[in-house]
Amino acid sequence: MLKWWIILYIAHRLASSLSHTPRTVVAPGIELRILPLGDSISFGWNSTDGTDGYRLELSQCLSSSSWLFVGTQRSGTLMADNYNEGHPGYTISRIGAVAGPGLAESPNIVLLHAGTNDLNNSPRPANESYANAPTRLGALIDEVLAQVPGTVVVVAQIINAANAGTEEKIQAFNQAVPGIAQQRADAGMKVAVVDMSSVGAGELIDGLYPTPTGYKHMGDLWLGALQRVTAMG
């Protein structure tokens, strides 16, 4: 059984340093059951390659014998293993409300990118203010770890947006993410952070969703986080 170390890892601009060939075995002898959890970005929305999103790049980088995606949703036309738990349009709280069936598939890695809809949509429900989005993210992480105590949650500082007002909110949200993760790591939870904020406005197809280049960038950043997490144990 893999010995997991609790780490806090922030990956800054790793895409340029990652090799795509040969495929990478990030945890020799261990099958990674990876749950991509989040909203439309985890689903791969607006991806011109067929809604494969960042999962396509990640799948092309990982050794075919060392991993599989899990989840109740399927999206993507370029890979057979297109399972995920991405829910287009969902806020953090709504993601938490529907995550149970995906978590029941016993992932040992959860890739969590959530918060875009909390910070972009208007008007806000009374219980989903912009300012409290970090608190909701922490609660979602707690829900994940309560249902699957042995899993590692890799939580993202989310990608940018072209709209100045939305981007300001995203920056404030992202500043809170490391503290959210560190608080839980200090309590013995298995949490890591990956910084997706280097996916900028020039890699967005409509100011909000990544272009194919943006999704590729995300896949490389996820790979870097997986390498750092699994190398520790």
Keywords:
single chain, 233 residues, 7-stranded mixed beta sheet, 8 helices, globular
Describe the protein.
This protein has one domain (15-230): SGNH hydrolase (Rossmann fold). It contains eight helices and seven strands; from the N terminus they run βααβββααβααβαβα. Residues 1-22 have low confidence and may be disordered. It is globular. It has 233 residues and is of the alpha/beta class. It has helices spanning 40-43, 53-61, 92-98, 100-103, 116-120, 133-147, 164-186, 212-230, and strands at residues 32-38, 67-69, 73-74, 83-86, 109-113, 152-157, 191-195. 37% of the residues lie in helices and 14% in strands. Helix 7 (164-186) links the parallel strand 6 and strand 7. Strands 1, 2, 3, 4, 5, 6 and 7 form a seven-stranded mixed sheet that branches.
Number of contiguous helices: 8
Q: What percent of residues are in strands?
A: 5-15%
The secondary structure category is alpha/beta
Number of strands: 7
Looking at CATH, which topology would you report?
Rossmann fold
Could you give me the name of the CATH homologous superfamily? SGNH hydrolase
Order of helices and strands: EHHEEEHHEHHEHEH
Could you give a short account of the major beta sheet?
A: 7 strands, mixed
Q: If you average the pLDDT, what whole number results?
A: 85
CATH architectural arrangement = 3-Layer(aba) Sandwich
Cα-based radius of gyration, to the nearest Å: 16 Å
CATH class call: Alpha Beta
Short description:
This protein is an alpha/beta fold and 233 residues long.
